[in-house]
Design goal:
heterotetramer, A: Butyryl-CoA Dehydrogenase, subunit A, domain 2, Butyryl-CoA Dehydrogenase, subunit A, domain 3, 3 domains, 4-stranded mixed sheet, globular, B: alpha+beta, Butyryl-Coa Dehydrogenase, subunit A, domain 1, Butyryl-CoA Dehydrogenase, subunit A, domain 2, 7-stranded mixed sheet, two-stranded antiparallel sheet, 13 helices, about 55% helix
Chain lengths: ~375, ~375, ~375, ~375
């Protein structure tokens, strides 16, 4: 047990920190939405990250990755958050689609897709959730029919980040309507420029659109875009989702670290003597340390066994609730001015964060589903459904 | 000991609910909320004709001669319908001061005057205004007064015909009426999160005003206004919470996941049960506060503070749970829930935080 | 709407308050357990209450009650709590067995049982819960067999207050093991002095025994002790349970009122300047007012419709959680001395109350069951089982 | 960056768990808890032979030459087994002061000396003692010292061979050793709710003592003792929480109501999931604190305070949820749960409340 960076990690961290200080464009900090001029900035930033070797840190070298252990990805996420730098626009390609293709793809698929993910030339999105299938993913209804040498896709996906700028989509749909519902699923790579694909931004309670709906109308997808087998989509999708959780906790703790620092500054400035505020600030600081060190324990487990433990669910569950409490506390400190969206930077910042935080317990696995997962898979309790 | 409404009061509620449901269905209030003005001005004379603007105004002045309990029923129903318009400003915030002048009461009852309160309370100003030490000063000019200064975060500032201004004169804080048609203060309406109740900044530059209450009398009116306002918001919050609960229950009954309505899962149903319980407790506190305000009971201050603190938090929690029960859909702009949530947050932020209100109560308990 | 006492209630309250001031023996205050000398005091106190006309306030006059509206019972419970006077030992007879007999009993049963309940000559207990049937009452297994002119009872009941001093027991058992489980239940009155009845006190985490187990071994119960019909016990039991909730909320709010007053005194004495303590004290005071006025609303509903509304479940649910928070706060104020059971009065008092409070969310309907009841019966949500 | 235990440390834990499970099954520890003495004295030499009393003592003094991380493992396992005996007192509270005298360390390692700390901290005295202004004074008498005064709420006061006393001498607070065989202070053991770790009052009446650390040096030792004690209790709390969780999960799997195991109900399963989550977070904090204490890291103070505050509350909540999941059975004297609950409450009450600990952290954050 040693909670300090080893010499190689320390060197990697120092280099990265220096690089970030020199390379994060000021106009990128806090950018959201990736439309208009922000998109060009975001693309350039992603390419710069890729060029400096910070994309695919844990991907095997044979596929163009850096072949580093997970701890490098952890350090990368910590430092990126600390610098308040935006994510690489290709997170879905790097973290989900790429590892899924590495695990289930044919050699020609690997050759075709992986390099463009790494170079940030191709942005990917995910087409899993549907209006009728949120928590219950196995119930997706988007139809996939094999017609001659191509699939025809019809249906609607929802909650898809990056879809409005994506080049490709990993899509889970239904190729058989009879039999066990998990067994009728098929997993495709869809070119987002195909005729019949329509993306509509989904405006959320903050007033901004960060997610999208994707409508598929008679979209033709070449047969070679099949990942895994027809009817074998569930297993491929599980690979995608398990990769979502690998070092996800580090990104969350990194974001929370920034939020806690801003909260402390706000409290110091506007409510330094308020014992109730202090108590709640200390709670969130403790929660942050608890998540941080739980991540380190998870990382040790991941590096030893190669498989992510249940800590990913733990981190997501607690981060979402902490972020909701923390942003609520911040608007309480701000007072009635928190109702003014065009007020000074502080009020508007926290107002946005607070409204946005309500999605945290819903997106990427609702808190209810995460508690089910913990109860059933970790504690071995009988299924509640 | 009879904690029930009279048949007439029950009828007032039933009538209010059906009027508001027809007049402002969910599609309509989203339109209103997103409109430039944020208000359906044509609705005000209708409210006046229903007797709501003059509920507690004496019949001699054209009112209904009822009391705060009747107004409380209207506040709850307006909250439930998320009514956009200066009813809270006029009836809760301005009316106690306007009562100093019978001519004004008659105008309120008839729907001819809307008003709001520009408070002299540093807690209720923005950080920017606080830094500037903003306040309004009153200076005598013949039988009128001139107001000068700035006040911030004034509810419905962009809509109302008149401002009741807490301004500092030579003898302390008095209450003045600045009518828009002759005072013409500078008004900046902020882009408020709850677009149906926008806040604004009001700047007076030697604008002409009429005195409503001079310093010693004004203090009691300001205190009673605060009690009315807190009780009214508690009732609005109960209306908001009830509607959010109803939306959540409906969704839990109809939405299917894993082959069953999601309301069969205790993670959903118990959350809604907690919302029901908190809404009922908030309702009890709000009705208690309403009765105390109506009767000018000795407990009115504590009751109003307690009810507002509790009901606001209950309404916020009710909306948050309803959003969670709705899943992603509850997080979208097109669903009505976020508008209720933003109203609940507005109510919560008004006057002081729940923690500050509880500190007031604790002071009375522990020191008393 | 008028939240003041009307003239008659005010007079009743004033008389009662004066009577209590003069009649509650000092040695009775705070007594628990009803064993040894406490029992004699408790019996004498119950008879004194009955003698002064405070038993059966809402019972019909034809059965010896005072025939008063429910508000008198509410005032009685408020004032009893305020005086910190113990309950009438016959609460189960007065509040549950008696009303059940009035609703379902034959004239001879009414003649035989009701007067002794009112006079406090007979103490009753309840035999419903079993080790295997806590929340799921319809699954009770205590066997009731009709053999000639009497029933034979075999089985075990648990969580029975007053059983160690009771003269009679209302017992729900199973007379048929086939068919729908609700339909095989039968409801009897059992003489606790019958051969084969054994009562064992159940020691709880406070170290005291307030509840009992009752073992029935071939207990003969005369046929005329049947209440309702053979196989019709479920309906009779529902009457018993609905009466449990009638004005129960007033007793709970009364107890909470006393607890809040003691908490305020403790906070004033030992933590008057602590903003966190003040916040939590204010929360409980507000909760108390919320429960109090919810009770008044429930009372108005009960008097208008004759049927208790859902507020009984609300009051029990929230009172139990409030009492747990409140007693926890008290021991936190007391500090490490709260670990000393033989310390001064304050520490020992709160220590007992805090441990005892853990039962509040379990006894008389667990919080989980109460939330189910609210979800299903009030909100109309589908059953969770 | 490696947050994992070494194979040797994993083995220590596995060995400790199996030893304690065999040596102190649930039936046995109930007997011990209800015994007059409250302790199985024969177990102490066994702990010494296992190398636990001397885990962090140098091999030259007969110890195992390990560190606080190994002791942390033992604390967690002793908490899980609800061990009754002065391990916490001797190894967490007394050892840093005893380290001033190598002869004493050798006795601790061999199992020949148990000790506790009698603190000079007004927060850690009873209200009665506080009112009296109780404290211990030290006066020089040749090469020995005489102690006089009273100290309260001393853990395991009835069991130990010696007291490390924080006493006020002419130059401030120093650390003194009063061994029972020659000092003979008056000891009153209180009827403590957690009978496996009883508190006592110790009264010195010019009792003979040996100085361990004079005023300036003593301050640093007192501070490091507090860090060790808080980290040790955080680990015990994690052990308590883990065991309560295991009991709750087992019950939820086997207990049937309405024809299904109660663990199928989310009202039960989600409560247990929350216990799991909080226990794991507490564990992370406790291991972090243990490492900081072992390494004398600059963050040791904050880490120990945070870990104790969080883990104690997590353990209390874990026991409360387990009691609730067990229904009436969890509320009975015969079930082991209440003993775990009482230990959790004991831990929570030690030193200061969670709120006071968070205030320390906030002071560092907001002021720093």
């Amino acid at each position: 047990m040693d909670l300090r960076d080893g010499p190689e990690e320390a060197a990697f961290r120092a280099t990265l920190r220096t690089w970030l200080a020199a390379n994060v464009p000021a106009e990128l900090r806090g950018l959201r939405g990736w439309t208009g001029p922000a998109l060009a900035l975001g693309r350039a930033w992603s390419k710069r990250l890729a060029g400096a070797g910070y994309a695919g840190l844990t991907w095997p070298k044979e596929y163009g990755g850096a072949g580093q252990p997970w701890r490098y990805q952890a350090v990368y996420l910590e430092e990126l958050a600390k610098a308040e730098a935006p994510q690489h626009l290709g997170v879905i390609g790097l973290g989900m689609a790429g590892p899924t293709i590495i695990a289930h793809g044919r050699p020609d698929q690997k050759a075709r897709y992986l390099a463009e993910i790494l170079s940030a030339d191709d942005i990917w999105c995910q087409g899993f959730s549907e209006p009728g299938s949120g928590s219950d993913l196995a119930s997706v209804r988007t139809r996939i029919e094999l017609v001659g040498d191509h699939f025809v896709v019809n249906g609607q996906k929802v909650w898809s980040s990056y879809a409005h700028i994506a080049d490709r989509c990993i899509l889970l749909g239904r190729s058989a309507v009879t039999g066990e519902k998990h067994e009728g699923l098929t997993y495709l790579v869809v070119d987002m420029k195909s005729p019949g694909v329509e993306v509509r931004p989904l405006r959320q309670i903050t007033g901004e659109a960060e997610f999208n709906e994707i409508f598929f109308t008679d979209v033709a997808v070449p047969k070679e875009n099949l990942l895994g087998e027809i009817g074998g989509g569930w297993r491929v999708a599980m690979t995608t989702l398990s990769h979502e959780r690998g070092t996800f906790g580090f990104a969350l703790a990194g974001a929370l670290d920034v939020a806690v620092r801003k909260l402390v500054a706000l409290a110091r400035e506007r409510a330094g003597a308020d014992a109730l505020v202090r108590d709640r600030v200390a709670r969130e600081w403790i929660e942050l340390q608890a998540l941080r060190y739980t991540n380190y324990r998870a990382l040790a487990h991941l590096e030893r066994t190669g498989a992510p433990g249940p800590e990913g669910s733990v981190a997501k569950l607690r981060w979402s609730e902490a972020n909701q409490r923390l942003t609520k506390l911040a608007i309480e400190i701000v007072g009635q001015e928190s109702q003014v969206a065009d007020g000074d930077g502080t009020a508007a910042y926290w107002r946005y964060q607070q409204l946005r935080s309500r999605g945290n317990t819903i997106e990427a696995g609702t808190s209810e589903i995460l508690r089910n997962i913990i109860a059933e898979r970790v504690l071995g309790l009988p299924r509640s459904r | 000991m009879d904690f029930s409404f009279s048949p007439e009061q029950d009828q007032l509620r039933a009538h209010a609910r059906s009027f508001l449901e027809k007049r402002f269905p969910a599609t309509r209030f989203a339109e209103i909320a997103m409109s430039e003005d944020g208000w359906d001005r044509a609705s005000w004379p209708e409210l006046a004709r229903l007797g709501w603007t003059g509920a507690s105004i004496a019949e001699a002045q054209g009112g209904a001669g009822q009391g705060f309990v009747e107004e409380a029923i209207v506040f709850e129903e307006l909250g439930r319908a998320l009514y956009a318009g200066p009813y809270f400003s006029t009836v809760a915030l301005a009316l106690p001061a306007l009562a100093c002048a019978p001519d004004l009461l008659a105008k309120v009852a008839s729907g001819g005057l809307t008003a709001t309160l520009a408070p002299d309370d540093p807690v209720r100003q923005s950080a920017g205004a606080k830094a500037k030490g903003a306040a309004v000063e009153a200076r005598r000019a013949g039988d009128r007064w001139l107001l000068r200064g700035e006040t911030d975060l004034v509810p419905d500032a962009g809509w109302v015909d008149a401002f009741v201004v807490e301004a500092r004169g030579p003898d302390g804080i008095g209450l003045y009426l600045a009518e828009r048609h002759d005072a013409r203060p500078l008004i900046r309406v902020f882009d408020t999160v709850d677009t149906t109740r926008r806040l604004g900044r009001v700047t007076f530059d030697d604008d002409s005003a009429r005195i409503l209450a001079a310093p010693p009398a004004a203090t009691a009116i300001i205190a009673s206004t605060r009690r009315r306002a807190l009780a009214a918001l508690a009732l609005e919050a109960v209306g908001v919470a009830s509607f959010a609960l109803a939306l959540g229950v409906e969704h839990a009954k109809s939405r299917q996941q894993f082959g069953r309505p999601i309301g069969t899962y205790q993670a959903v149903s118990h959350k809604l049960a907690d919302t029901y319980v908190e809404t009922e407790l908030a309702r009890s506190l709000a009705y208690w506060a309403a009765w105390c305000v109506a009767e000018d009971d000795a407990q009115a201050e504590l009751a109003a503070v307690a009810a507002k603190a509790y009901a606001a938090e209950a309404a916020v929690a009710a909306c948050e749970r309803a959003i969670q029960v709705h899943g992603g859909m509850g997080f979208t702009w097109d669903h009505p829930l976020h508008r209720y949530y933003k109203r609940a947050l507005w109510i919560e932020s008004f006057d002081r935080s729940g923690a500050a209100h509880r500190a007031e109560i604790a002071q009375a308990l522990v020191a008393g």
